[in-house]
Amino acid sequence: MDGGNDTREQAYAADIASIRQAQLRIEPYIHRTPVLSSENLNKLSKKKLFFKSECFQKGGAFKMRGACNAIFSLDDDRAARGVLTHSSGNHAAALALAAKLRGIPAYIIIPNNAPQCKVENVKRHGGQVIPCEPTMQSRELVAGRVQEETGAVLVHPYNDRHIISGQGTVALELLDQVPEIDTIIVPISGGGLISGVALAAKAINPSIRILAAEPSGADDVAQSKAAGEIITLAEVNTIADGLRSTLGSLTWPVVRDLVDDVITVEDEEIVEAMRLCYEILKVAVEPSGAIGLAAVLSDKFRTSPAWESSHNIGIVLSGGNLDLSVLWESLR
Amino acid sequence: MDGGNDTREQAYAADIASIRQAQLRIEPYIHRTPVLSSENLNKLSKKKLFFKSECFQKGGAFKMRGACNAIFSLDDDRAARGVLTHSSGNHAAALALAAKLRGIPAYIIIPNNAPQCKVENVKRHGGQVIPCEPTMQSRELVAGRVQEETGAVLVHPYNDRHIISGQGTVALELLDQVPEIDTIIVPISGGGLISGVALAAKAINPSIRILAAEPSGADDVAQSKAAGEIITLAEVNTIADGLRSTLGSLTWPVVRDLVDDVITVEDEEIVEAMRLCYEILKVAVEPSGAIGLAAVLSDKFRTSPAWESSHNIGIVLSGGNLDLSVLWESLR
């Protein structure tokens, strides 16, 4: 499952040393987020649950960890030319924020059909928004042009060693806060977060189980694990807008080797988990952020091999960026 | 404002010793809640803000502290007969939950026009709901009957020494977590929370400023402070359903002497503060819980005598129990 095979470990994009380095590097810039628990949710799940609440991270999601590690790893000369990414989500906002902390420009390429609230979010964090057509071709064309003009460093949202190491600091903190954890459930999309978490956690304690939580409408990871190779879906359909990416060349080997199982859940289960997060935990999560709770409460988990031996379960509430206008309108 | 005047201190319903006792007594039953901060909100307020997040307290509000202190102070004989209160809000749920922890009955008298979600909340926490007509007369009649039949101890939501001492533990924790705090803003209704906080904080550091945050549609405390006596309003009108009570005989002297100022805010300011809590802090608060943030962002505060010398401000996010059905309906 993991373990003493050094050759293999060294083949991964990150390891416990690079994750510990990341922790030292990013410590001044991020929040050590609290771990929450609830007896009601323990009762409901029949397990002890520990919610690592990355919603409270700067920028509202764990993405700030990887972004800071990537940006503060650059030498001064490279950094001065700025950073670049194409994403309209939490990675874009985090990269903009981390760049601001280092005092360098962040160029964020966003398709011109992206929701205005996402564009505003990137701008609010100091990012320079550069619009492109909503096609892969236009995106790459624009990215190429910006790189040529500025010399900015492209920071991929997940298929990047520094990003993976940065996200792995979630597990270092969690296992420091709750050493008795035997299972960690992590939302999966491109696999940056779960790769970092798996590499850190299994290095600390190889018997820790790592489970991925994935929407059934975007279950490319479950399919990839079953097929033994990266599967890309023609179409995805899920409320969890943060979980629509596909695995990358650096994340796939970790997911293949170190993720013990994938639990797929329906969108209705995600919304119900969100409700429990807001109404019981009092944490404002986005759909992608609530999927770990959905997984632990699912029939899929109860009938899985992991059920019996999972007692103290860490759940990463990965982010909380969500448009709640409907709520404010109803209150006004 | 407070201080070395022992006679006066002894006249209050609680003191630093009773609050420290409460802390020891309730520690096994409550959460030590995290303190959150946000650079965005610091920038917006031009202050350093520290959010003591009692939304994450068991039962979803600070009320669990007082309820546990009251219930675990009872000797076994008295406790065995159970406890009683008339409230449909957070105190009722907390009392039910604390009673369950001690294994004793909790009788909760609720007017038959109370929202069903509040009734369910009390039941979920193990309380025995006893309906009454929605009049003061019926409530007291029913309470008298239940006390006669059961011998249960009436635990008032705020006008009770043990409740005040229990709520004061919020300040002990907060000042331990963030010793540099110079000002604490506390929502005010019956005054139990702010009395405990003021007595604890001023005993630890007499120069700490205590500000009450009150809805302008239920500004009986501002009026009482101005008049020098308890004023009761004929009518209250605010979205903050937890802030509609009036001061009691035990809380008024503390509020009169130790609360430095009252900041009244409009309901629109409360909703805007809620929005910031959800969207920036990612904490699900109820209107009463968000009023401290509304106060710190208000023009009233910016033009108040406290503005200049308040730098590190503790804000108690008092609770997070709110019906969010409109949100779930929109997502489904």
Description:
The structure is a homodimer of 332-residue chains. By secondary structure, the first copy, chain A, is of the alpha/beta class. The first copy, chain A, folds into two domains: 6-61 and 160-325, Rossmann fold (3-Layer(aba) Sandwich); 63-154, Rossmann fold (3-Layer(aba) Sandwich). Chain A is 48% helix and 14% strand. Chain A contains 16 helices and ten strands. In chain A, the strands form two sheets. In chain A, strands 1-2-10-7-8-9 form a six-stranded mixed β-sheet, with helices on both faces. In chain A, helix 4 crosses helix 6 and helix 9 (161-177) packs across helix 10 (192-204). Chain A is globular, with a radius of gyration of 19 Å. The termini of chain A are far apart. Mean pLDDT of chain A is 94; it is low at 1-9. At the A-B interface, helix 13 and helix 16 of A face helix 13 and helix 16 of B. Chains A, B: Belongs to the serine/threonine dehydratase family. Chains A, B: Catalyzes the synthesis of D-serine from L-serine. Has dehydratase activity towards both L-serine and D-serine. Chains A, B: Residues 26-319 form the Tryptophan synthase beta chain-like PALP domain.
What are the defining features of this structure?
homodimer, 332 residues, alpha/beta, Rossmann fold, 2 domains, 16 helices
Question: How many DSSP helices of chain A?
Answer: 16
**What proportion of the residues of chain A is helical, as a percent range?**
40-55%
Radius of gyration of chain A: 19 Å
The succession of helices and strands of chain A, N to C, reads HHEHEHHEHEHEHEHEHEHHEHHHEH
Strand content of chain A: 5-15%
Q: What CATH architecture label of the largest domain in chain A applies?
A: 3-Layer(aba) Sandwich
The tally of strands of chain A reads 10
Query: How many strands, which pairing sense, and closed or not: the largest β-sheet of chain A?
Result: 6 strands, mixed
Quick check: average pLDDT of chain A?
94
User: Which CATH first-tier class of the largest domain in chain A would you pick?
Assistant: Alpha Beta
Low-confidence stretches of chain A: 1-9
